[in-house]
């Protein structure tokens, strides 16, 4: 592209004429200005000595043109955080805006540059080292192009515009601007900026939490059934040693409940004396529904059980010393009880409460996720069980539950026991997740789940099931997690790895060679599916590798590129009982990647199995697929550092997800065939893997992602970007098909949480 630096005088002269755009702009839709950053000599230092609010200015001769511009920031180091503040100094004053940074990847943002700009300054919360490679570019945009990009962004990333056409979006914005008495540009930018905005938790509490809760009184009046809830609170001597203030806070949160059908049983350990008991009684009115119970036991499991046998409620839950319930917690649970009559377990989101009353560390949980539960107790503390079922679970698992000594272990044991019951007796409606922050854990009493307790509990549960009796439980990647090594059948199944390719020997060779050389699971065949390669070097390599390794076969697909059709062709000619969809631009990180994936794919309840993929620079490329991100679906945790735990530790936990990418995907061949394989008619290139996963899930299988299968992925190098009108039209038709076919599934992913964003891939708040 030719570079054009245009003076402000020429710009104003052009705008003064009837033609709003100079002639060379009509020939070339963008004017690019590259700004070398010049840092000020005295950056403002933040509270973190290694991070500074560094500011640089654009010189007068390097200013972008007034009007619509695309700002591009590249080379931002991983230390940079938050957003860059952009300050326009104009003749009429100062105008500020901000741009969220994407460390490790180019940040692009459409901005309106006002007229009369004298100087532009940027402020970053980053060290100068993190900005050493910073490159700033301004690309002037024609109004029609800016309008098109704005509309497309709103369709893909704004909930109010999902499924609309660009014409409908533009019309809606014009109508809204008339209603507000302001310019179309102001309304469009405000809506556009919402798709980039990220809110912290404190702001979410103020602006969103209260708006999503219905009037408690109206809820209570409309209840067909008002269940009695029994709340059990075991108290040990170590609790009392922390003082009475946490106990008072817990009791007050119960008294403040808007729902009134509840009872509490505070079960006192045997080592609590009469003086200490009487001290607690001062905070409990004699006619209260709060009952103090003396016990001869000392272990938490037995204290918990004693409270349970005295409870009369329809539902039973626990609360810990110092923890608090949200004011409407029981009210919302009562509503869910009526709305979901088949549910036997109800759980909600939770956060942590500081001594000063401020809430932080929100944990917005997914829906029912058995493999995540086998990795760690993601259910957490607020778990309401129907009493009849709980009585059955406790009677059947006396040995497992009777000797537990920690609160977290008791919670986890009950959740695992429920999971076992659900396998044989329950269904999808047996669990209800309330996406609301109903429980506040005390920061002073964290009650963590110890890894050894988790290993013991999961091992005990697996031994009771014939299908998983030979599974071995190891320490997980997090302190409170485990890893299950699932057995591989004997004899080991043959795996057919399907690798579509066209030319590109430079990426095919390292992929194939690495798989052949760095894969401990050797019982596989590798089918190179050649799509009309005409490069002599590529063809020579394919012939050579097929001769020197008997596991390799080359199959020719002499038709136009269609990813779905190529893989369906490969699957039809495969000999294995397990199919592996493998991109020609992936490379294993370690030799155990296929062993892990095969062991998961052999489980009868599991459908598609996905891997953890990295960009060549080590940043995360794929941590599973979240439905609804962007237009149809997106990759969870994309661009997170390799060592990151991810949101609530999920980058280091085996879990069920609605979909995984076909860049590296395994599933049993009979499952693949039963759902019709990949959709080669409607989804020739994009979203065919998401469609496959959803068909598999609809057939009754659980899709799974594992952090223990790691590969590098040079994303879409061979095929290229969708940067032509034909490719763009094809992509739009595939998006439309996915919305028509799976719309209601795309808008509510059970592996995600409706309070989390569908704009960004980082699990930030809406």
Word description of this protein:
- InterPro entries: Glyco_trans_2-like, Nucleotide-diphossugar_trans.
- It comes from Vreelandella alkaliphila.
- GO terms for molecular function: transferase activity.
- Keywords: Transferase.
- It holds the Pfam family Glycos_transf_2.
- It is a single chain.
- With 766 residues, the chain is an alpha+beta fold.
- It folds into three domains: 187 residues, no CATH class; 233 residues, Spore Coat Polysaccharide Biosynthesis Protein SpsA, Chain A (Alpha-Beta Complex); 252 residues, Alpha-Beta Complex (Spore Coat Polysaccharide Biosynthesis Protein SpsA, Chain A).
- The chain contains 24 helices and 33 strands.
- The strands form six sheets. Strands 22, 23, 24, 25, 26, 27, 28, 31, 32 and 33 form a ten-stranded mixed sheet that branches. Strands 11, 12, 13, 14, 15, 16, 17, 18 and 19 form a nine-stranded mixed sheet that branches. Strands 2, 3, 4, 6, 7 and 9 form a six-stranded antiparallel sheet that branches.
- Helix 3 packs across helix 4, helix 3 runs parallel beside helix 5 and helix 16 runs parallel beside helix 17.
- It is globular, with a radius of gyration of 29 Å.
- The N terminus is likely disordered.
